[in-house]
Amino acid sequence: MTKSEVLKEYFGYDSFREGQEELIDAILAGQDVLGIMPTGAGKSICYQIPAMMLPGITVVISPLISLMKDQVGALNQAGIPACYFNSSLSQHEYFEAMERAKSGEYKIIYVAPERLEIDSFLGIAEECEISFVAVDEAHCVSQWGQDFRPSYLKIHSFITRLPHRPVVGAFTATATKRVRDDIITLLRLNFPKTLVTGFDRPNLYFETHQSIPKTEFVLNYVKSHPNQSGIIYCISRKQVERVCSALCEAGFSATRYHAGLPQEERKHNQDAFIYGDKLVMVATNAFGMGIDKSDVRFVIHHGMPRSLEAYYQEAGRAGRDGLKSDCILLYSSQDVTTNRFLIDQNDGNPELSESQQKAIREKELERLKIMTFYSTTTDCLRDYILKYFGEAGCGKCNNCSNCLTQCEEIDITNEARKLVACVAMMNQRCSQTMLFDYVRAQSNESLDKFSFTGKKGYGCLKDASPKRLKEILDYLMRTGYLKAGDHYTINLTEKSHDILSETVMLKVTKERKKKMQSKKAARTSSNDNPELFELLRQKRAELAKAEKMPPYIIFSDRTLHEMASEMPLTEKDFLGLSGVGAHKCEKYSGEFIPVIRKYVQSH
Ligand code: ADP
């Protein structure tokens, strides 16, 4: 079979995505590879297809134990013999899989890096023909990455113990130049073909909001997107509890995940989300690594994360199936304070010297600043992200809230000067609330305590709304006229004085075009028959329950949408759907075609 035939036969796809073919060709030609592709770009196929075409076995090393079961399940569904070895297997299961592996039953073996050193696993490795080793999440090998795993450093010695050196492929979604070099050096890749595909995810729509009632927004959003699965990220466990309770009390199907919950409950809630029993997951950033759910339609950040790297990774969990999905960030300036607090709390790595820790902290604060700019910019959000990741940028994408928002520039010189003067007047000992109460002449205990009430400038912006003041203060912080100090205070900067001689213009929102409706229309236009789609979804859920599989492993939403609009009534037409390979056609056409037929007859 050719690679295109394997793609169609097993995965049901007609064409390769960007980068896949080049990497597959290199691997088949015996060259090592380094593939850097964003989440959802389709990295797995880059090693699964060679695995089917090369003689012997492919070993896939992955740190994500929770994901292995699903990945192996999905491969088995597609008719590819695969198994996994990790700590979740019982001894009996482990030895059984081992025997089968030795007898050559599997083409792909997933293994956790810790297992590589275990004698029994080395036994298989030495006895069987291993033609290809694929290292997933390869950035874990680098100490400069966010997710360093010491066990990844053992991969090289594992490879050297094999009777024949296999082709080695490394795959990751994020890698700076430094991490990339580490991957090549530490895994000893041999003149690898390195391929970096674009970071853009055109199916994702980006939106930011500043200073709005966040939980109310979340409730309204979930209400207006029924039957859609999504993740809501919060900065703290407390926020997770609050938002999740608010959703549950309002009758929505939601669950929660954070490091403060017992392990068993975390697992239970995660499964409920993955298997579709709960539609919305409210979580801290502890959730998501290794979540491969492809039909997540929205990711809302209830609070701003610490860096754009973290944001893009978390937001990128939306729309892995390529369908339109929303990534919404709700920002408030309090998020900056909370994140600074978290950065300060971080004890850091005890193996690093004080000056190294200081340098890391500064880098983190710099990243936080960049994230804050993203949250408050009025320019194209996608362009901002792409440029940050070193790409050319896209100018105006017309698929983010800023591109769809009409702005006007207003002169805020007067207000800005007054705010800066009042910060100076209070000797930089004011919080945001104190400052706003001061300029608006509102009573405030702290102002009384420090005897600020009634001093120069008190009430100088009496008529300004808190919302507008906040926009102006955010702007002043963003542009460096003011900065956040310790203990939630606002401080002056070297640039503060310049405000006296400069004109300050602020871009404010005029009106946001009605994007949501048009986008929704676009999303459902691929599905001419929402009623049939719903019936097919129910069928899929029923099969998923019976097989104890997440629904998206049976068929993705994309395949289901196509099924609902194409309405195939023969096996041949069913096989023509994207995402339906020979094995799945044989297994499921008899389940879905009757649903379609019944629908057609009754309409
Ligand atoms: P990654 O590991 O890069 O995050 P995956 O390998 O999980 O991404 O792929 C994401 C989704 O894209 C999966 O549902 C996969 O089946 C689908 N996919 C991969 N390659 C193709 C292709 N050539 N055509 C259509 N869909 C694809």
Number of helices: 25
Distance between the termini: 42 Å
**Spatial order of the strands in the main sheet?**
3-4-2-5-6-1-7
CA-based gyration radius: 27 Å
Please tally the β strands and state the result.
Answer: 17
The biggest beta sheet reads:
7 strands, parallel
Q: Would you tell me the structural class of the helices and strands?
A: alpha/beta
Helical proportion, percent range: 40-55%
Q: Which outline best applies?
A: globular
* Unreliable stretches: 513-526
Percent of residues in beta strands: 5-15%
Which molecules are bound besides the chains? adenosine-5'-diphosphate
Mean pLDDT: 89
Concise account of the structure shown:
By secondary structure, this protein is α/β, with parallel strands linked by helices. It is built from 25 helices and 17 strands. The longest helix is centred in the middle third of the chain and has 23 residues, at about 355-375.
Task: Describe the protein's topology.
Elements: H1 3-11, H2 20-28, E1 33-36, H3 43-53, E2 57-61, H4 65-77, E3 82-85, H5 91-102, E4 108-111, H6 119-127, E5 130-135, H7 155-161, E6 167-172, H8 177-186, E7 193-196, E8 204-210, H9 214-224, E9 229-233, H10 237-249, E10 254-257, H11 263-274, E11 280-283, E12 296-301, H12 308-315, E13 325-331, H13 333-345, H14 354-376, H15 381-388, E14 405-411, H16 413-425, H17 432-439, H18 445-449, H19 466-478, E15 482-484, E16 490-492, E17 505-512, H20 515-525, H21 530-547, H22 551-554, H23 557-566, H24 571-575, H25 582-602
Parallel strand pairs: 1-6, 1-7, 2-4, 2-5, 3-4, 5-6, 8-13, 9-11, 9-12, 10-11, 12-13
Antiparallel strand pairs: 14-17, 15-16
Helix pairs in contact: 2-3, 13-14, 21-23, 21-25
This protein binds adenosine-5'-diphosphate.
